[in-house]
Amino acid sequence: MMKKRKGVPGSSAEERSSRDQAIAAAAASKSHLVARALEIAVNICTKKGEVASWQVFTRMHAEGLTKAIEDSDPRWMGAVFNRRCWERVRWENTGRHKRPQSVWRFAA
Asked: Which of 4, 25, 67, 86 has the smallest count of CB within 10 Å of its CB?
């Protein structure tokens, strides 16, 4: 069994499996949000070289998608970055709750 590394969110196999199931369920019902968020993430990353989910949420709110976002389980955003085209650069304590969030770039 894999030991949980202190300070790394979702590092155990059980946590990853549970997270992945929740992401898939949330994303299935919000595919339109996932598609738009992916477009925004690619745009931001192309311009800045990296992107975090809080930046994507901020842009989506600016586009008037606040109600759709707030009426949804926020785990759908995981489907945006749970793809082979992304690689994690680092963790940042940013966003609304200053919790660790991944910063992503295009995979090499």
From this structure: 67
Beta bridge partners of 63: none
Task: For residues 65 and 71, give the distance between their C-alpha atoms in angstroms, rounded to a whole number.
Answer: 10
d(CA 32, CA 27): 9
| 57 within 8 A of 72, measured Cβ to Cβ | no
Separation between Cα atoms, residue 28 and residue 30, nearest integer Å: 6
pLDDT tens, position by position, 54-101: 999 999 999 999 999 888 877 788 889 988 899 999 998 876 677 888
pTM of the model: 0.77
| φ, ψ (nearest 5 deg) of residue 65 | -95, 15
Single-letter amino acid, residue 16 = R
